[in-house]
């Protein structure tokens, strides 16, 4: 066995994955901190790396639905289910002001650009403007015909603010005219609105659509984006203003370029997304989900290079010493072959421990980080004709690990040819003993469905390739054919006729 050749580990490139500047930028976040939160009559404020809240406001009669900081970070305004709007000082606990006027739940609050007024929208179809110094209601707008669930104020003009409603409309109000000045039809219940810093563009989200409107042209639709599979619930703009983020119930956060409005990056989360925010300079991304988890990702800090004293290297003559030495007649040349260290799975394969070799590459550390090693060993066992022996005779725990790996990677095109064969062998071996373990039965049925679905995909692809071959065949250059024709003098002449 001295000439054992290690198993060849093939490389399986991820198809369609392109490394761009956006990919490097948005992937540069640490693993998230997850906070378990529930809907309650309290508002918690967390520090950057604190696991426990550093501040709590609990003077609400009912569930708190929304909260917004003022631009200077000193004041916090919040709305609750009972229709109340309260203003807090970040250094205290008791509310500074209480605004009573809404009769149903308040879902959106924001400060105007002058920092002395608050805008609120509620389920009573109304939008109200409040004066902070006097704690009084200044204006009430009743132009919406359904719940007002989102809104934002202009950061440049203290008289302008925008609201979105479940009546499918987005309205821009001007406090100087006491009515809306622009109204656009989104086409779906509006879940979120976002006014760009310049005030000239407006983004609205509702249904599966994100729409961009030109407010300087009276609300003209610029672009309609449909990149989510479920309802879009939230929008946010990056610190540079060049990237727009959208969160959806399909558990994805999409990042768009604000110049081309194409998706440049995407985040995946464990549950449907309800809210989304970015910290200053995009240092932190915060996502709230339907499972009660608040996910907080912090940007990785750039490692500083330590200025170590430069080590003196050997002189040039050290490297060329003996280079021109000529072998003498009595010299004996001794070659020292470098010793090759085999991996643990190669040692098992060398000693014909095929089941042990398969167990090693099914460890979580291997299947998650380097699944191509697991696939290569499965392919090697199949080449040797012992894959069925390695998969047979396994208990519930061992077969569950195999099924988990197949279910996770079977749908990947780069692994499908190898894993489909392994899945068919498992189905043939363990089909007679199905029904003895509920856990294995569930995974077994799921695997069987995936195999059938993947085979259907392969059949459809083959049919498509056949159609394309026929189309390409008809598009080839027509070849000339030769025929014999009689001339006027009675002789036969060979002529070429285009077919």
UniProtKB/TrEMBL annotation:
GO terms for biological process: positive regulation of transcription by RNA polymerase I; rRNA processing. WD repeats lie at residues 99-140, 225-266. Residues 324-471 form the U3 small nucleolar RNA-associated protein 15 C-terminal domain. Its main location: nucleus. GO terms for cellular component: nucleolus. Keywords: Nucleus, Repeat, rRNA processing, WD repeat. It is found in: Nucleus, Nucleolus. Part of the small subunit (SSU) processome, composed of more than 70 proteins and the RNA chaperone small nucleolar RNA (snoRNA) U3. May be a component of the proposed t-UTP subcomplex of the ribosomal small subunit (SSU) processome containing at least UTP4, WDR43, HEATR1, UTP15, WDR75. Interacts directly with UTP4 and WDR43. Ribosome biogenesis factor. Involved in nucleolar processing of pre-18S ribosomal RNA. Required for optimal pre-ribosomal RNA transcription by RNA polymerase I. Part of the small subunit (SSU) processome, first precursor of the small eukaryotic ribosomal subunit. During the assembly of the SSU processome in the nucleolus, many ribosome biogenesis factors, an RNA chaperone and ribosomal proteins associate with the nascent pre-rRNA and work in concert to generate RNA folding, modifications, rearrangements and cleavage as well as targeted degradation of pre-ribosomal RNA by the RNA exosome. PANTHER family: U3 SMALL NUCLEOLAR RNA-ASSOCIATED PROTEIN 15 HOMOLOG (PTHR19924:SF26), UTP15 U3 SMALL NUCLEOLAR RNA-ASSOCIATED PROTEIN 15 FAMILY MEMBER (PTHR19924). This is U3 small nucleolar RNA-associated protein 15 homolog. It comes from Odobenus rosmarus divergens (Pacific walrus).
């Amino acid at each position: 066995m001295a000439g054992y050749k290690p198993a060849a580990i093939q490389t399986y490139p991820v198809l369609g994955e392109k490394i761009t500047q956006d990919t490097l930028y948005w992937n540069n976040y640490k693993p998230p901190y997850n906070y378990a939160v529930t809907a309650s009559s309290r508002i918690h404020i967390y520090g950057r790396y604190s696991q426990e809240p550093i501040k709590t406001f609990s003077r609400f009669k009912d569930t708190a639905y929304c909260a917004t900081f003022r631009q200077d970070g000193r004041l916090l305004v919040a709305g609750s289910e009972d229709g109340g709007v309260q203003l807090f000082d970040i250094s205290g606990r008791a509310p500074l002001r209480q605004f009573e006027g809404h009769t149903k739940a308040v879902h959106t609050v924001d400060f105007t650009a002058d920092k002395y007024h608050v805008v609120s929208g509620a389920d009573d179809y109304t939008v109200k403007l409040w004066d902070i110094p006097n704690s009084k209601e200044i204006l009430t707008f009743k132009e919406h015909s359904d719940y007002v669930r989102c809104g934002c104020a202009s950061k440049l003009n203290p008289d302008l603010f925008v609201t979105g409603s479940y009546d499918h409309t987005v309205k821009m109000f001007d406090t100087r005219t006491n009515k809306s000045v622009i109204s656009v039809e989104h086409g779906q219940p509006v879940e979120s609105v976002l006014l760009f810093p310049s005030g000239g563009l407006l983004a609205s989200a509702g249904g599966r659509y994100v729409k961009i409107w030109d407010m300087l042209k009276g609300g003209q639709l610029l672009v309609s984006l449909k990149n989510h599979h479920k309802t879009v619930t939230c929008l946010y703009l990056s610190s540079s203003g060049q990237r727009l983020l959208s969160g959806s119930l399909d558990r994805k956060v999409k990042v768009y370029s604000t110049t081309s409005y194409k998706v440049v990056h995407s985040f995946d989360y464990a549950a449907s997304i309800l809210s989304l925010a970015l910290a200053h300079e995009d240092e932190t991304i915060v996502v709230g989900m339907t499972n009660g988890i608040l996910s907080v990702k912090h940007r990785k800090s750039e490692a500083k290079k330590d200025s170590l004293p430069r080590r003196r290297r050997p002189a040039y003559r050290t490297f060329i010493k003996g280079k021109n030495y000529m072998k003498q007649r009595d010299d004996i040349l001794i070659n020292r072959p470098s010793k090759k260290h085999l991996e643990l799975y190669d040692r098992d394969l060398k000693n014909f421990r095929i089941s042990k070799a398969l167990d090693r590459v099914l460890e979580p550390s291997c299947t998650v980080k380097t699944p191509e090693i697991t696939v290569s060993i499965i392919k090697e066992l199949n080449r040797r004709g012992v894959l069925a022996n390695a998969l047979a005779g396994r208990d519930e725990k061992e077969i569950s690990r195999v099924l988990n790996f197949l279910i996770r990677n079977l749908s990947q095109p780069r692994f499908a040819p190898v894993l489909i064969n392994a899945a068919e062998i498992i189905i043939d071996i363990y089909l007679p003993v199905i029904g003895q373990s509920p856990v294995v039965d569930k995974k077994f049925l799921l695997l069987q469905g995936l195999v059938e679905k993947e085979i259907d995909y392969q059949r459809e692809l083959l049919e498509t390739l056949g159609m394309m071959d026929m189309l390409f065949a008809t598009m080839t250059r027509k070849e000339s054919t030769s025929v014999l024709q009689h001339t006027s003098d009675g002789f036969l002449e060979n002529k070429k006729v285009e077919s």
